[in-house]
DNA sequence: ATACAATCTACAGCTACTGTAGAAGCAAGC
DNA sequence: GCTTGCTTCTACAGTAGCTGTAGATTGTAT
């Protein structure tokens, strides 16, 4: 495959920081179109595939789910459609992330107490285990 | 099952806020011991099982993995062992959570820009889609 | 007696990949 | 032409932690 416009699956994977298996997986679930094949059955990609897969990977890096990315791709495939939907997906995603941050911070404050409370001794007296076992941590504070 | 010390799986589930299927799942993976059975084959539980399952559920609520909980349970099953291990698990878990918070906050700042940048218009000009597609967001800022 | 709830086993499905097996294709060196 | 080693192919199993379902029993209330 010397023609630079015809990429093998490994080239596509390398250029986008994706694993080869993952490229095939995205094809299976319909995020990437079925590409053309060589006579011997190998997949052939081009620059448009690189752009599409980059989009997918950036979206995943930003924490969008595969379904969200599917919607965003559908939008960018139909450039005349209204873009409010994309904005809505992004805002919802932002809310989700802020919620997860808040939950993790609650968790963190609970754990700071637990983790600091013990540094050796008999397990029977372990305050970490006690804290997890007890209702106190979750109900009284 | 009128004897209050003999709990059916549904009672155990209700008392611990667990689904019945999940109780059986914990048995499968060895977090809960195989309980005694009635003559007809139904599982019988007692107060110790309630405590153990509560421990598991609290641990899961705190974000501990099943494997971490397995270690903590093993420790509390052997009360003479040193408790430093439990403390180490808790501290490691705390570090994990702090890392996840940091990652989500980075994500959040990236998304705040993306989500605010668009509120309608042609998808072709959508800044949300552009932002995800572009390298700019990830490489230049 | 009949209805309905709870339980049983066993297995499929969820997310988003990742890894593996076994076969076949391809390029380079000798 | 042959071998070596890399890439690719299909197909499937495994990861975490459950959840849901099917179809068969069992228990309980009316």
From TrEMBL, chains A, B:
- Cross-referenced CDD domains: HTH_CadR-PbrR-like
Q: Which InterPro entries match?
A: DNA-bd_dom_put_sf, MerR-type_HTH_dom, MerR_fam, Tscrpt_reg_MerR_DNA-bd
Q: Where is the HTH merR-type domain?
A: 6-75
A Pfam family of the record is MerR
For this UniProt record, the keywords arranged alphabetically read as follows:
DNA-binding, Transcription, Transcription regulation
Superkingdom of this entry's organism? Bacteria
SMART domains assigned: HTH_MERR
Gene Ontology molecular function: DNA binding; DNA-binding transcription factor activity
Q: Answer whether the UniProt record assigns the keyword DNA-binding to this protein.
A: yes
PANTHER family attached here?
Answer: HTH-TYPE TRANSCRIPTIONAL REGULATOR ZNTR (PTHR30204:SF92), REDOX-CYCLING DRUG-SENSING TRANSCRIPTIONAL ACTIVATOR SOXR (PTHR30204)
Q: What is this protein called?
A: MerR family transcriptional regulator
| Originating organism | Novosphingobium umbonatum
Q: What is the lineage of its organism?
A: Bacteria, Pseudomonadati, Pseudomonadota, Alphaproteobacteria, Sphingomonadales
């Amino acid at each position: 495959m010397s023609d630079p416009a015809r990429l093998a699956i490994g080239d596509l994977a390398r250029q986008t920081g994706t694993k080869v298996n993952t490229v095939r997986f995205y094809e299976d679930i319909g995020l990437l179109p079925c590409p053309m094949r060589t006579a011997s059955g190998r997949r052939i990609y081009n620059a448009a595939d690189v752009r599409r897969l980059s989009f997918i990977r950036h979206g995943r890096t930003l924490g969008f789910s595969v379904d969200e990315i599917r919607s965003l791709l559908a939008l960018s495939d139909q450039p005349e459609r209204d873009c409010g939907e994309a904005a809505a997906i992004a805002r919802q995603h932002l809310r989700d992330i802020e919620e997860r941050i808040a939950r993790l911070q609650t968790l963190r404050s609970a754990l700071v107490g637990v983790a600091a409370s013990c540094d050796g001794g008999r397990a029977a007296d372990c305050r970490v285990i006690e804290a997890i076992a007890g209702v106190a941590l979750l109900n009284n504070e």
